[in-house]
Amino acid sequence: MPRRAFLVGTAFLSLLAAPVSATGKTMNGTRLHQAAGQNDAAAITRLLAAGAEIEARDRNGATPLLVATHANAVEAARVLVQAGADVNAEDLIQDSPYLYAGARGHLEILKMTLAHGADLKSTNRFGGTALIPACERGHVETVRTLIEAGVDVDHVNNLAWTALLEAIILGDGGPRHQQIVDLLVRAGADVNLADGNGVTPLGHARAAGYDKIQRILVAAGAR
């Protein structure tokens, strides 16, 4: 191998092996972001003790806690939350640990955020609360948890849809979405609150042929 190529290769390997400080940047964010994504609670504890910035942002504007939430890295999230990480810190597309955990059904992390100051009125880039996408995606226990926490069941997003409408329009009409519709109705959701085109939840359920959901709605006074 020519000496120049050898020296360049050696220098490159040395850079790869060089240590990065607790607050130093990696290719995408900090060492803390990396540890969070890998659910490495021990590394997170060490990095925080060494002075790592708990609210540092990666190139997507995500904090280490949001990275942990993306990965459903429960132990990493627990360490970060207990260390004071902001559960409402939003990234560049308006996701926060609280909102993302709710939308994706990451129930353990969601409960942590609720216990540490989650903003129940915060909304995602579609103007929806954490409850609305949870209903769409069929996360029954997440929906139950958010309702019990006090999230507004009749909040209307930018599409003019409530959680009830979204559960019907974007759901599959199966057992999970039937349970979710029942939970929303029992929580006092307005069964006649129509979408932007004036179509009610019952109208959408009829159009989709969701018989069980229709029965739940009619029993609750839907028209």
Q: Would you count the extended β strands for me?
A: 2
Quick one: overall form?
elongated
Instruction: Output the CATH topology of the largest domain.
Output: Serine Threonine Protein Phosphatase 5, Tetratricopeptide repeat
Compressed to H and E, one letter per element, the order equals HEEHHHHHHHHHHHH
CATH hierarchy, class of the largest domain: Mainly Alpha
Number of domains: 2
Low-confidence stretches: 1-24
Number of helices: 13
Cα separation of the termini:
81 Å
Q: Find the structural class using helix and strand composition.
A: mainly alpha
Mean pLDDT: 91
Strand content: under 5%
Strand order of the biggest β-sheet: 1-2
The largest pleated sheet is described as: 2 strands, antiparallel
ANK repeats: 27-59, 60-92, 93-125, 126-158
Pfam families: Ank_2 (PF12796)
Keywords: ANK repeat, Repeat, Signal
Protein name: Ankyrin repeat domain-containing protein
Task: Describe the protein's architecture and organization.
This is Ankyrin repeat domain-containing protein. This protein has about 220 residues and is mainly alpha-helical. It has helices at about 5-15, 30-35, 40-50, 65-70, 75-80, 95-105, 105-115, 130-135, 140-150, 165-170, 175-185, 200-210, 210-220; strands at about 25, 30. It has a two-stranded antiparallel sheet. The model is unreliable at about 1-25 (pLDDT under 50). It is built from 13 helices and two strands, in the order αββαααααααααααα. It has two domains: about 25-120, Ankyrin repeat-containing domain (Serine Threonine Protein Phosphatase 5, Tetratricopeptide repeat); about 125-223, Ankyrin repeat-containing domain (Serine Threonine Protein Phosphatase 5, Tetratricopeptide repeat), CATH 1.25.40. It starts with a helix and ends with a helix.
